[in-house]
Amino acid sequence: MGIGISVVLLIIGLVLLTHAVDLPTSVTDHVAADTVGWICVIVAIIGFAVALLAGRNREPRA
């Protein structure tokens, strides 16, 4: 997972957490938007950290 996907997941998670978009009741009856938002944010942070650490290992050493 790269930095781009992490940014997209972070944006989706924050939109769900802030209730910036009204989801249909058929979705909110079955899915807790806050929980999915937190999961997206946590996965995005972990993915961002892994991408940075993997990028650090690719740099050539002098």
Briefly characterize the structure.
74% of the residues lie in helices and 0% in strands. It contains three helices and no strands. The longest helix has 26 residues, at 33-58.
Structural features, described:
The protein is mainly α and 62 residues long. It contains 3 helices and no strands. Helix 1 (3-18) packs antiparallel against helix 3. The two termini are 28 Å apart. The mean pLDDT is 88.
Oligomer: single chain
Number of strands: 0
| Portion in beta strands | under 5%
Percentage of residues assigned to helices: over 70%
How many whole angstroms does the radius of gyration measure?
15 Å
What's the helix count? 3
**SSE sequence, one letter per element:** HHH
Mean pLDDT score: 88
Q: What structural class do you assign from the helix and strand content?
A: mainly alpha
Query: Whole-Å distance between the termini?
Result: 28 Å
Q: Low-confidence stretches at least 5 residues in length (pLDDT < 50)?
A: none
Keywords for this entry:
mainly alpha; single chain; 0% strand; 62 residues
SSE inventory with pairings:
Elements: H1 3-18, H2 25-28, H3 33-58
